[in-house]
């Protein structure tokens, strides 16, 4: 621990650096195939890249409107209306942020007081607990159990206390691949209404579903005024480095979210916001179908490869991750196993414990499959050889 004038603030002491990005560094260092961090290794849509170049050439290079360039807020309002029948006022309800990551942090800071509680479903995407800590709030965890990871409204009620203000709901889910069904969603909505909670949603994978359709929590009866909907361009358009996120929130809280966002980042990159707006304005629905078809093929290749190598995993209904049980291959803890798999097996993945506060992730490892088929084939080859060497107790051949 650092002492003296540069001792870090207390609020930074209770969480560690991102394990997902740490594993990306390990992958680079040892030359492993990176199935750790969820970013595509294939190009963004040509038209979207051209739109960004054009926006820069058109001298859209200064700050945009802090809460988002008007054309983009307009397009997002149309997007929510067209896809989900949601009425979203571009001037009062929408804030554009630097990725869904900033969106989540800004919402926590804008909504939660110190000592307020926020319910987080375990396993969870690793940002939510640090976001709660930065806001001075407490995360309360509700564990969902494999293989189904079903969300039981009664179990949810049981973790709520008088101090609980909000619940984070991520569907399609990272890391489980669950898409909560109508019954689970309606159950959450009922609990939120009964217990006067806000639901903060992370819908960044809204377009990556292998069956059925996505229905935002904000469209459930009585939820429009108590739901804060977070999404972004990163996953739908394979532009994770552009840092474009969005918040749709009732006007009562939008003002506070915009203030926090303004003083954190001023705004997301203006030319890239314009390119997102242009892309949405001219979007061919076939693009979204091809996106899903591509991911389904990748998912199926990985499921088969992992199972044949001896991992146990379910079938994701959405998003682009597989949470796999490696206990038939190794008895090590997840961190030891993940580091050895990267160094000796040549495949980087994320230790399961990064998604848990309990010890229930210690025999799990998360692979992302948002990579070219050739990348995944190479990874499966390496995983198979690694697993064979483990079972024969010998060296990787
Ligand atoms: N959401 C991605 C993942 O879970 C990327 C995380 C990040 O590095 N921001 O891997």
Quick rundown:
The protein has 397 residues and is of the alpha/beta class.
Explain how this protein is built.
With about 400 residues, the protein is of the alpha/beta class. It has two domains: about 10-45 and about 285-390, Aspartate Aminotransferase, domain 1; about 45-280, Type I PLP-dependent aspartate aminotransferase-like (Major domain) (Aspartate Aminotransferase, domain 2, 3-Layer(aba) Sandwich). About 40% of the residues lie in helices and about 15% in strands. It contains twelve helices and twelve strands. The chain has helices spanning about 20-30, 45-55, 70-85, 100-110, 130-135, 155-160, 180-195, 250-265, 270-280, 285-310, 335-345, 375-390; strands at about 35, 95, 115-120, 140-145, 165-170, 200, 225-230, 245-250, 320-325, 345-350, 350, 365-370. Strands 2-8-7-6-5-3-4 form a seven-stranded mixed sheet, with helices on both faces. Strands 9-12-11 form a three-stranded antiparallel sheet. It is globular, with a radius of gyration of 21 Å. The model has no long low-confidence stretch (mean pLDDT about 95). The structure holds glutamine.
């Amino acid at each position: 621990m650092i002492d003296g004038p540069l001792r870090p603030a207390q609020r930074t002491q209770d969480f560690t650096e991102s394990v997902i990005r740490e594993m990306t560094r390990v992958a680079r260092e040892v030359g492993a195939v990176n199935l750790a961090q969820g970013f595509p290794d294939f190009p963004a849509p040509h038209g979207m890249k051209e739109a960004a170049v054009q926006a820069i050439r058109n001298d859209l290079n200064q700050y945009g409107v802090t809460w988002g360039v008007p054309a983009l807020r307009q397009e997002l309002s149309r997007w929510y209306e067209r896809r989900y029948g949601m009425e979203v006022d571009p001037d009062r309800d929408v804030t554009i942020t630097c990725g869904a990551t900033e969106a989540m942090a800004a919402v926590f800071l804008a909504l939660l007081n110190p000592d307020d509680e926020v319910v987080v479903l375990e396993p969870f995407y690793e940002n939510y607990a640090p976001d709660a800590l930065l806001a001075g709030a407490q995360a309360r965890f509700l564990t969902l159990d494999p293989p189904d990871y079903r969300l039981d409204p009664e179990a949810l009620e049981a973790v709520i206390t008088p101090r609980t203000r909000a619940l984070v709901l991520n569907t399609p889910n990272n890391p489980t691949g669950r898409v909560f069904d109508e019954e689970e969603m309606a159950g959450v909505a009922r609990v939120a209404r009964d217990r006067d909670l806000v639901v903060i949603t992370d819908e960044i994978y809204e377009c990556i579903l292998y069956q059925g359709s996505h229905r935002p929590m904000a469209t459930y009866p009585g939820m429009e005024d108590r739901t804060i909907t977070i999404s972004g361009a990163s996953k739908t358009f394979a532009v994770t480095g552009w840092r474009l996120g969005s918040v749709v929130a009732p006007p009562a809280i939008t003002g506070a979210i915009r203030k926090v966002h303004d003083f954190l980042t001023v705004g997301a990159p203006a030319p890239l916001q314009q390119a997102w707006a242009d892309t949405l304005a001219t979007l061919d629905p076939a693009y979204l179908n091809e996106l899903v078809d591509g991911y389904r093929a990748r998912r199926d290749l990985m499921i088969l490869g992992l199972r044949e190598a001896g991992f146990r995993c379910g079938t994701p209904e959405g998003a682009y991750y597989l949470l796999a049980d490696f206990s038939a291959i190794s008895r090590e803890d997840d961190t030891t196993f993940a580091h050895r798999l990267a160094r000796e097996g040549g495949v980087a993945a994320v230790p399961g414990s990064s998604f848990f506060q309990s010890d229930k992730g210690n025999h799990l490892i998360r692979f992302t499959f948002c990579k070219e088929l050739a990348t995944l084939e190479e990874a499966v080859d390496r995983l198979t050889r690694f697993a064979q060497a483990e079972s024969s107790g010998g060296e990787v051949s």
